[in-house]
Amino acid sequence: MTRRTVVTVVTYGLLGVAFVLGIIWFFWPGNSRWEPAVNTLTLVAGLSGIFVERLTAEAERRTEVLRAVVDELQENTRLLNDERFSPDAPTSRQVYPRLVVSAVDLALVSGALGLHRDADLVGLLHRWRDTVHLFNRRLDLTEISTFSNTISPAELAAFHRALHRENSYFAATREKLQNLLAAIPQP
């Protein structure tokens, strides 16, 4: 059982016992020893309820952040499969789509993944963020070079071949994306 489940069971168990003792005390009021028991159990249940609420809110926030990251990574997969990244040689200069990292940035700064169990995932997200920034910068430089007035069709084809080499940054980015998608726990 998870910690949240244990705390929830304890909280509701204490409330149930306090309720039963309260009913007994109501029907047999002559025995005043039930009053401190009912009050104490209710107080302890209320305090443990605070922990249940916090654990639940933390779990919900983590789930929301993970869903946003998965959605963003799936969008990046779609962008990397865009026809402008196809291996076919372009016939003209192109503006390439850029990868996004806004949900990854949110996940890293929100604190929702700050738990010890997410340490490896946080490391992967940091590396992915750096990879995306470098990838987008390389696309910027490629576009600047290909949109200059002096580029020949042969040079344009060479840029495209470099993008699609087996050990290119494009291939490494795609591989990191697939590895990150596989590493994210399903919420």
From TrEMBL:
Keywords annotated in UniProt: Membrane, Transmembrane, Transmembrane helix
Stretches that traverse the bilayer: 7-28
Protein name as annotated: DUF4760 domain-containing protein
